[in-house]
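Course assignment 3, question 2. Fill in each field.
Student: A.L.
Task: Predict the tertiary structure for the chain below.
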Amino acid sequence: MNKFFTAIAILALGVGLSARDEVLYFSIDNLLTSPKAIRVLNPNIKFSFGSGSKGEILQKDLMSNKKTNAFNKSDQEACERAFLSALKTFQERAVREGGTRVINITGYYKKQPFDSKTQFQCGAGALMAGVTLRGDIAK
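Answer field:
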């Protein structure tokens, strides 16, 4: 009888942690004006979201793919952390390349293009959240 309850508990745990993979969308502006973004991002390197931005492109079609532990965090908190990390990676690359902006930033989660000037795309699972961005370094 004890083995029966152990098997039921393991099954219930497995169902509770089953593979969840939702694509969620959050506001770029709300996040970029938040105190956490101000602490993390370099104010000297600007961003332009969505395709169609113009500028002297130094490096074209770069990708930043960031994941974060989502355990004990809301989907939004985990996604915001991954998004800020991806943006910071672009900023660091811009500094190395002599750029002042990251332009044409679009989502590319699971190789699915997402072009928006107002929202970012994030994959949220039971244990991880991830953001993949594409963009260009420009002056």
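Instructor remarks: Residues 4-17 have pLDDT under 50 and may be disordered. The chain has one domain: 19-138.
Grade: pending
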